[in-house]
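Handout, section B. The chain below has 309 residues.
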Amino acid sequence: MPQHFLAVRDISADEFNYIVDKAIEIKRDPEPWSESLKGRTLAMIFQKTSTRTRFSFEAGMTQLGGHAIFAQTQHTQMGIADIADEGKVISRYADLIMARMMYNRDLVALAQGSEVSVINGCDDRYHPAQALTDLMTIKEKLGRTEGVKIVYMGIANNVSNSLSMASIYAGARFTLCVPEFDPPAVDEEQLAILRANDRYEETDDPAEAMKDADVVYTDTWINMEHFNNPEFAEEKERRIRTFKPYQVNEDLLRLSGKETTLVMHCLPAHKGYEVNETILYHPNSVVFDQAENRLHAQKALMLWLLGKL
């Protein structure tokens, strides 16, 4: 069976941390890896729109000497054919598949049919490639992940699901500071694992959460596909009222009591909502380095999945 990366828990903590370390190494000195995937093909399947996921995976595969094929699902038979069957067929053409899907169930079906490794490029429950990048960025900036306090502020969603498990894998302390969970993202099995770990905590009090924070992280409160959807207007207004106290801004950052607390966001950001107009450009913000690191972390991931590390 191929090794898939649909969620952080698909690999072990040791494997996760090994990939993080190799990502930092590859970023520092990419040349030795420039022909590592020569003749290899990555199939990139997109049901959701993307900037960072598409550019980072395609550029990464090119920089490793390989080739990437981009396909939007509406331009394939995936909407009418059995998804598992489509996965089986695509895996006969490609050495790896990366899929960015609306629903986790469709990604799982694709992986069940595939004869090669499938990477989750984001779905409604998980975003493990982002979490790999996030821990790489934290280790790069702070020199360690062990004992680092990471605070996730806003709505519990696919990003926080992956970041929380990745943080525990990396020996960090993780605080989830949210007033509610996004229903599709709820993973009761993972929550049970996390809540049994003394390095994981939950609170709805931003001041309590931010005390001694080394990192504060946020994501959009409103899914990108819903942001300008008139049918979602009432829910959008409710979320703005609910989540505004959790906005990451300079006042919230000061609550950490540290001058070095990093600001992180997986982007794109809705300025004036989960972040204010200026915090992304604060001296403590690493969001654009974090975005760049998608390239390096995913290169390490692809190399590892193909047995090249």
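Note. The chain has a mean pLDDT of 96. Compare this with the example in section A.
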